[in-house]
Structure formats: structure tokens, C-alpha cells
Amino acid sequence: MTEQQKAVITKEQARFLAHLELKSYAVKMDAIARANTELTFQSDYDREEFVKAVMADDWVIDTGHYLINVLAPLQEKGFITATTNNNPLSGEVVYTVTADVAKAALFTEVELGSIKALQPYVKTEFLIAEYDAIKRYGNVMDWLNDDGRGAGTVEESEPTFSDESAEADSGSEEPTVRHSKASFRIK
């Protein structure tokens, strides 16, 4: 089954299926029956996708969020984080780079299109869907059980970068991220 043919389910549905061994038809039918009483489906399409996921024992979770891995072309981890500056009046967002996927900022497609500082990284080689990033770099069970994780809305501001392994070059007009593996210039 290719990635495009996999059933798309919600995080809640994946949490429901996480501890089930869907190896026999009896277990699969029981899971579908229990889901009808324990889960809420938004539409018939959602219900059909859930049934497809159970029957194939294979699915993807589309959260609508993406992470930016600035070191992806180098096959390394370097995720952008976004935090609000200490001055709450300015509301300035500070972008940093971290190897910890759990600390990475989540961005929607709308945010990716509107934040000018991130435009150099709004390319397929840097973007990774949230679920794919967790599967590859994190712990899926921890992520499924964590309802509080979320980046919230990120506002546009002038970027600054800091991290043990990445630092900003303040000597040039355009901010540059220097990492032990590469340098990136932000325009």
C-alpha cells in the first residue's frame, strides 16, 4: 500500500487503536464495533477511513501541521522552534534550531505561506508532516498520549537564532544560521 493509499485517521482514532494487535478478523471487527460507541466520527467518510485503517492495520494521521527541518538535505536533524520573546509587549517571535523533535514548532500551511522569515524553508526538502516526523524521530506513543503539545499561532517578526549547535551571525545584514554541519542565510 503506498503512502497515498493509506487510510487517513485522526489522532484520537490512532490513540484508540494504539494498543490493539489487529492480526485477526475477530479483533478487527471488535475494534470497529467498539469504535462505533467509543469514538465520534465527523462524517461517513471519516468512519470509512477508520474501517480501512483497521482492516489494513496501516494508516497515516493528518494533523494539518508541518515541521521544518533545516538540515534535512544533510540527513541531519535541525528543527525550527518558535518562542515568543521575553518582552510580551513586542510579541516578537524568536526562531531557534534544535535536534529535539518534541521541541519543534508546528506550522499550518497558512502560517508557512505568511511568515516571510521561513520562506526559504517552505520547500518539500525541508518540510515534514507532523506524524511522519514523530514516527521517524520521536516516540509515537508519547505523542499520541500528549494532548497538550502544540505550537499555537506563530506571528511574523524579524528572526534571531540561538542554540548550542546553531548560532546567529549578527555581523551581517541578513541573518545567518551557523550550525556545525552547515550555514543558512535567511532573507
* Spatial strand order of the main sheet: 7-8-9
- Tell me, briefly, the overall form: elongated
- The topology string of helices and strands comes to EHHHEEEEHEHHEEE
Average residue-wise pLDDT: 79
Flag low-confidence runs: 149-176, 178-187
Radius of gyration: 19 Å
Query: What class would the helix/strand composition place it in?
Result: alpha+beta
Total domain units: 2
Strand content: 15-25%
The helicity comes to 25-40%
Tell me the number of strands: 9
Distance between the terminal alpha carbons, to the nearest Å?
A: 40 Å
> How is the biggest beta sheet arranged?
3 strands, antiparallel
Give the helix tally: 6
Task: Walk me through the structure.
With 187 residues, the protein is α+β, with helices and mostly antiparallel strands. The chain folds into two domains: 7-61, no CATH class; 66-185, no CATH class. It has helices at 11-17, 25-38, 44-56, 109-114, 130-137, 140-145; strands spanning 7-9, 59-61, 66-68, 79-84, 93-98, 127-129, 166-168, 176-179, 183-185. The chain has a three-stranded antiparallel β-sheet with strand order 7-8-9, with no helix packed on it. A two-stranded parallel sheet has the order 1-2. It has a two-stranded antiparallel ribbon with strand order 3-6. Helix 2 runs antiparallel to helix 3. The longest helix is centred in the N-terminal third of the chain and has 14 residues, at 25-38. It is elongated, with a radius of gyration of 19 Å. The chain starts with 6 loop residues before the first strand and ends with a strand.
